[in-house]
## 1
Amino acid sequence: MSLRERKKEQTREALSWAALHLAVERGIENVRVEDIAAAAGVSARTFNNYFTSKFEAIYWRALARSEAAAVAVRERPAGEPLWDAVIAAVVEQYTAEGESRAPEGWQAGVRAMMQAPEMTGEYLKLSRRTEREMAVAVADRTGTDLDKDLYPHLVAAAVAAAVYVATDRWMQSEPPVPPMASLIEDGLRQIAAGLPAPR
Amino acid sequence: MSLRERKKEQTREALSWAALHLAVERGIENVRVEDIAAAAGVSARTFNNYFTSKFEAIYWRALARSEAAAVAVRERPAGEPLWDAVIAAVVEQYTAEGESRAPEGWQAGVRAMMQAPEMTGEYLKLSRRTEREMAVAVADRTGTDLDKDLYPHLVAAAVAAAVYVATDRWMQSEPPVPPMASLIEDGLRQIAAGLPAPR
DNA sequence: ACGTAAAATTACGGACCACGCAAATTTAGC
DNA sequence: GCTAAATTTGCGTGGTCCGTAATTTTACGT
C-alpha cells in the first residue's frame, strides 16, 4: 500500500474515531462536523470527502464489520449448511474484539449515545448499502438469483435485522451486560428456526 | 372529529401527496421542501410542523400502513397462531387498495423515484419508529416481555425486513408486475419457515 | 535532486434544511 | 361578540453538504 493510500486510511480512521469519541463525550447533538474535522486535524471539506454525514462516520466501524461478515460467509467451508455458515461468520465479527480493553465507562457512554433520538434509524439507513454484500454471498452459496429470487435478499435483511435488534438489546442492558456475540447468535438462531412463538 | 382536527389531517394528506407527486414527477433531487409546501398551499414552516424531512412526507402513507398492520395483528382472533395472524394482518394492508386505479405510468414513476440513490435507506430509517408498534403487538399475543426478550423485537424487525425486501422487489419488477401482496406474503412465509436454503 | 503529473486537501460560496420564537390568524367555546 | 387555545406564518439562525478552483502533497521518471 502506498504512502498516499495509507494516509487516506489513517484520515478515515481518525475521522471515524473522532466522531465516535466526541459523540460519546458530548452527546451527538453537541457535535458538529467542524468539531470532528478539527479533532482529526483536517478541514470540514475533507470530512465530507470521506463521509456524507457524521452518522456515517460514527457507524463506519460497524458498517465495516457488516462488510467483513459478508466476506467471511464467502470463506466458510463450501459444504457447510447456509445458516451454520452465516451464524459463524457473523458472530466471529463480534468476538475477535478487545471489548474488555475499552476504557471504563466507554461502553456505557456508547450505549447512552446510541440511545439519542437523533441516532434513531441512522444505522439502518446506512446498513442498507452493506446488505447487498451479504445478499451476494448468500446467492453464491445457495445458487439463488439476485434478480429473480427474494431469498438471498430476505436472508441478508433478516441477518441485518437480527444484528440490529441484538445490538439494540445490548445497548439497553443493565450490568452485568451479556456479551454482544451471545445476543447476536441467539437472534440469528431464532431467525433460522423460523421465529417460533415461545412456549 | 372537530373542524380543526379535520383540517390538520387534510393538511398532512395534502403535504404527503404533494411530496410524492412532485418526487415522481421531477425526481427527488429536484424537489425542495418549499416546493412541496407551495403545492399543498402552506408555508415551509408549516411543512416542518408536520414532517421533519421530505422523505418522511413521501413515506408517510407507507409508514401509516405499517402502523395499521400492527393494529391489525392485535385484532386477529386470540387463538390464531402468531405467524398466521401476522401474515394475514400485514398482507391485508397491501390488498385493500386501489392499485389498479392509479393513473397509467404512476407505478412505473413511483418505482423509478424510489430507486434514486437519495432514497436509499430513508424508508428503513423512518420505519424504525413503527417497528416498536409491531413488537408491542407481538409481545401481547405471545406473552413475551419487551424489556427482557429478544423475540418480539426480532419478529417485528424480521417482518419489516420482509416487507421492505418484497416492496423493493416489486419496485424493480418488469411488467407483468406481480401483486405486491403476493410478494410480501411469500417473504413472510419464508421468514416463518426459517428461511431454509432452497433446494 | 528535480520536474511534471496525479491525487488529495482546503477555502470559499451557495443552496438548502430544520428549528425556536413570537406575531398573526383561525377555530373553539361560551 | 369576546376570550382562550391552537395553528400558521415570518424571520432569523445555525448547520450541513456540495461544486469549484486553488493549493499542497505524493508519485514517478529521469
## 2
Amino acid sequence: MTSTDSISTATKHGRQGEATVRSKGGRPRSFDRDAALDQAMHLFWRHGYETTSINDLTTAMGITPPSLYTAFGDKRRLFLEAVRRYAGEPEAAEAAIAAAPSAREAARSLLTGAVVMFTGANTPPGCLLASATASGSASSRDVQIAVAAYRHRIADAFAARIGQDVAAGVLPAETDGPALARLVVAVIQGLSVMARDGLPKDALASVADAALHAWPSETPA
Amino acid sequence: MTSTDSISTATKHGRQGEATVRSKGGRPRSFDRDAALDQAMHLFWRHGYETTSINDLTTAMGITPPSLYTAFGDKRRLFLEAVRRYAGEPEAAEAAIAAAPSAREAARSLLTGAVVMFTGANTPPGCLLASATASGSASSRDVQIAVAAYRHRIADAFAARIGQDVAAGVLPAETDGPALARLVVAVIQGLSVMARDGLPKDALASVADAALHAWPSETPA
DNA sequence: TGGCTTCCGTATCGAACGCTACGAAAGTCT
DNA sequence: AGACTTTCGTAGCGTTCGATACGGAAGCCA
C-alpha cells in the first residue's frame, strides 16, 4: 500500500512457516523460498485468490505440488503469506500514517503511492488487496475477511490521524474524519479497478488529484 | 447502476435467447425463465463469475443443468445476460446522465443510488459490475472486458455531461472533466467494496457526501 | 389421434480442482 | 560410516468443474 519495494526481497531463506523452526538436519530445500513466494504473490495479484490454481502456482514457482505444500502449508496460508509480502506488516502502514506531517499529506502520499504501485511496468495492474478477494465462494469467506481487516486497519489509522489534525485545529472541527478516511480508501479501490481496466498512469494520477479536492482547507498550526 | 427496480421484473416469459425466437410447437418450458435469471444474477452478484459454479446456479434456480444450457446457452452467456438484467441497457444509463439537470446533480444521483443499491436488505452487498469480475483467470478475460466496457460507457457519458456544463459556464473552464468523471466511478467501486465489507448504509452515504466536496463550485446559468 | 418438436430428468463425460502417499535422493549429526 | 531427517519427483487420490447423450414425457398442429 505504501512502499514500492515490498516486491523485491525480504528476510532471507531459511525456514519460517510459522516462526523460524529449528531443523535437525535433512535434505535442504533446493529452491529459493522467497523467490517462489514472489511468483505466487504476482499470480494472486493478477488472477485473484480462488481463480489461481495450484497448477498455475507450481508452474510459475518452478516447483512441484509436494514442495509447495511442505514449504507453505496449503493454498490459503500461501495466499495470506503473499498478502503480507505484498502489503507489509499492517503495523508499519499504521505507523507511517501516524507519523505523516499532516492527515492531508498522508492522504496525498497514500494516493500517489497507490497510483505508482498499481501501474508498475513489472507488476500486475491494480491492487492485490482490492481485487484478489473482491468476490468468492462461501468457502473462502475467512480469507476475504482477513483481507478486509487490512483495509479496516488502514482506514482506522487514517481516521485517527485526521482526528489529531482536527484536535490541533489544522482541520475544521466539523470535519467528518471517518468519512474522509473511508473516501481515501474507496478511491484507492477505484484506482485499482481502473488500473486493471488498462487506464494509463497519468489518468489515475488526475483522479487521485481530483479526490484531494474533497479535502477541507487546512489552517497550518 | 441507476435504477433500483432492475431487480424485480422485466419483459415476461417467452423465449428470448438472442432475439425472441419463434417456436413451432413442442413441450413448453416448465420454469419461469425470468425468475431463474434473477436467481442467477443474485448468485453472480454475491459470489462472482468464475467462483459461482453451475451446480450452485442450478440449485438456486431450481432447474437441472440441461435446462440451464438449453435456456441460456452456457455459463458465459448466462452471466452476460445477468449483467444486462442487473445494470439495464447501457444506453438508458447514458441517457439518464445526459438528461440530468447538471453534471453535479448527475453525480449526486449516481452516488446516492449506488449507496442504496449496494446496501439493499434483499440483495447481496456491493455492486455486481464492480466485484463479479474484479479478478479472474486468463480464460475469462473477454467477460472481464465486457463488464469493464460498461464502466467505460458510464464514465464517458459522465465526462461528456461535465463538458456540457463547462461549455455553458456552469463549471469552471479549468475543470478536468475526465478526471472528475472517473473519480465518481472510482468512488462507486470503493463503495461496493465497503458494502461488501459490511459497512452500514449511513457510513457509505457519508463517504458519497464527502466525495461530492471534490466538486468545483457551480455558477448557475 | 398421430406426428413433430421441444423440454425434462438421469446419468454421466473428460478435464481440472486441491491435495497427498510413497520411495528414492541428499543433506546433517554422532 | 551409518543412522536419521527432510525434500524431491512421480503418480495419483477423491472431488468438483463446465457441459452433454440419451430416452421418455409433454405440449402444439394437422
